[in-house]
């Protein structure tokens, strides 16, 4: 049973890699799109974290 699970997981990983790297009709892959948009997502996440930290600091100061 362990060998069967290993074969299934290996096939799923192989299919996933194939899907992420396969070029579409526009000549770009899903991985290309993710890599291109990653800096924007990082900036949004950073801003979200800063906003939440400032809100938490305000709540702590309001309690004291």
Number of extended strands: 0
Radius of gyration: 21 Å
Distance between the termini: 60 Å
Class by alpha and beta content: mainly alpha
Extract low-pLDDT stretches.
Answer: none
Tally of DSSP helical segments: 2
Shape: elongated
Order of helices and strands: HH
Q: Can you give the helix content as a percent range?
A: over 70%
Q: How would you concisely characterize the structure shown here?
A:
The chain contains 2 helices and no strands.
Please characterize this protein's 3D structure:
This protein is mostly helical. The chain is 84% helix and 0% strand. It contains 2 helices and no strands. The chain is elongated. The chain starts with a helix and ends with a helix. The mean pLDDT is 93.
What labels describe this entry?
64 residues, mainly alpha
Topology:
Layout: H1 2-21, H2 30-63
């Amino acid at each position: 049973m362990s060998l069967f699970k290993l074969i299934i997981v290996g096939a799923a990983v192989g299919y996933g890699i194939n899907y992420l790297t396969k070029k579409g009709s526009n000549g770009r892959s899903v991985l290309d799109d993710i890599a291109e948009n990653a800096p924007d997502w990082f900036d949004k996440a950073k801003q979200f974290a800063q906003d939440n930290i400032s809100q938490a600091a305000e709540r702590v100061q309001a309690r004291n």
